[in-house]
């Protein structure tokens, strides 16, 4: 019941979240920027960010795969990559407190976007919806997302619906020029009757929500 219509091809996205030891965050980010080209030689990185607000000492990265066989082949190749294992993994693992991954698909009405320019900030919003999947809440959720897009203050990058991990979870990735631009836009949206009505309808199916402000790393394709 937790799954629903998705894109017609087999492409999916792996969302990886790491909790970094607080005293080691700077060291970890420096290592990523220095050595992550060994990892991106094997498969496509969508983006890599660290948390600024809403969560502490976390990094988020998203990988694109053609199908599950593709991911398996990449994981096998990484295990044999001496540069990746020796220069990054062996040094990075002691800096990590916890790792978590999810497999997600883009919702069928969303294509992965890009920001209109570099230099902004990203917002990662996680919605935990009531059990039942898009058949229950999909239409209302889409209307709420579109209402925010129509205000013009923010840019939608992607909407991801989990397949492995905590089900009935939807992650929405937004881009804004700055935290202040986002704050001003949110203030205006809260006074827009169309947004208020769409959100009021959608939250009937919402169990929880978390917002995290993200800063892209130098190595991130999405900047």
How is the secondary structure organized here?
Blueprint: E1 12-20, H1 25-35, H2 37-40, E2 44-53, E3 58-65, H3 68-80, H4 82-92, E4 96-106, E5 121-129, H5 134-151, E6 155-164, E7 169-176, H6 179-190, H7 193-202, E8 206-216
Antiparallel strand pairs: 1-3, 1-4, 2-3, 2-8, 4-6, 5-7, 5-8, 6-7
Helix pairs in contact: 1-4, 5-7
| Count of alpha/pi helices | 7
C-alpha end-to-end distance = 36 Å
Tell me the number of strands: 8
Query: Strand order of the main beta sheet, please?
Result: 1-3-2-8-5-7-6-4
Tally of domains: 2
Shape: globular
- Portion of residues in helices? 25-40%
Structural class: alpha+beta
Beta-strand portion reads 25-35%
Mean pLDDT rating: 94
Low-confidence stretches: none
- Based on CA atoms alone, the radius of gyration comes out at 18 Å
CATH class category label of the largest domain: Alpha Beta
Largest sheet: 8 strands, antiparallel, barrel
CATH architectural label of the largest domain: 2-Layer Sandwich
Order of helices and strands: EHHEEHHEEHEEHHE
The CATH topology of the largest domain is given as Alpha-Beta Plaits
- Quaternary state of this entry equals single chain
Family: Belongs to the NipSnap family.
Organism: Helopsaltes ochotensis (Middendorff's grasshopper-warbler)
InterPro entries: Dimeric_a/b-barrel, NIPSNAP, NipSnap_domain
Protein name: NPS3A protein
